[in-house]
Amino acid sequence: MREIKRLIVHCSATPPARDIGVKEIRKWHKRRGWRDIGYHYVIRRDGVCETGRPVQVIGAHAHGFNRNSIGICLVGGVDARGRPRDNFTDAQYRTLLHLLKFLVVSHRPAEIRGHRDLPGVDKACPCFDVADWLEAQAIREESGRVALERE
Fold first, then answer.
1. What do you get for the CA distance between the two ends of the chain, in Å?
2. Confidence check: pLDDT of 138 > 90
3. Is-catalytic flag, 40?
4. Which residues are paired to 77 by β-bridges?
5. Residue 62 β-bridge partners
6. Each residue of 74-100: pLDDT tens digit?
7. 79, 80, 126, 144: which could join 85 in a potential S-S bond, CB 3.0 to 4.6 Å?
8. What is the model's pTM?
9. Among 11, 39, 61, 127, which one carries the catalytic annotation?
10. Among residues 5, 49, 101, 123, which one is catalytic?
11. In which band, very low, low, confident or very high, does the pLDDT at 135 lie, cut at 50, 70 and 90?
């Protein structure tokens, strides 16, 4: 198994009315010449989590950070005009929280970051402040370790 240092949260940059999943994103990524979908997990608008690229396989979701990370994509993230928006559903956020809790336990001491928070990244993705959201969910990082305070 690869050593996982980061769990990176992304968005699909699609409007909220467009409910897509692994199947559609895989097609987009293969059209770009990739061998598979770049993300390891995709969380649909209804909160269903779909498995993309196997976790044991290096992803293609954050240039320069793929080797030691897991990519998680929330469907949505832009408005009807393509502008960045935190328009994710409560179901998506619940699923994201459960998935991150599972992954943190499985891959200690992995840090959780939004794509936009990585060094050298100039994107809005995932269109919300992951650190602020984590704090509100009572997940905090201490010395590179994530502590889960409550279920």
1. 27
2. no
3. no
4. 14
5. none
6. 999 999 999 999 999 999 999 999 999
7. 79
8. 0.89
9. 39
10. 123
11. confident
- Tell me the C-alpha distance between 33 and 116, whole Å: 24
Please report the sign of the dihedral spanned by the C-alpha atoms of residue 11, residue 17, residue 21, residue 23: negative
61 is a catalytic site residue: no
Q: Is 123 a catalytic residue?
A: yes
Buried b (16+ CB within 10 A) or exposed e, 64-101: ebbeebbbbbbbbbbeeeeebbebbbeebbebbbebbe
What's domain 6-148's superfamily in CATH?
Answer: Peptidoglycan recognition protein-like (3.40.80.10)
pLDDT, mean over the chain: 90
Which residue among 10, 29, 40, 61 is the active-site one? 10
Q: What per-residue string of b and e applies to 111-145 under the rule 16 or more CB within 10 Å gives b? A: bbbbbbbbeebeebbbbbebeebbeebebebeeee
Residue ranges of domains in the chain: 6-148
**pLDDT > 50? residue 146:** no
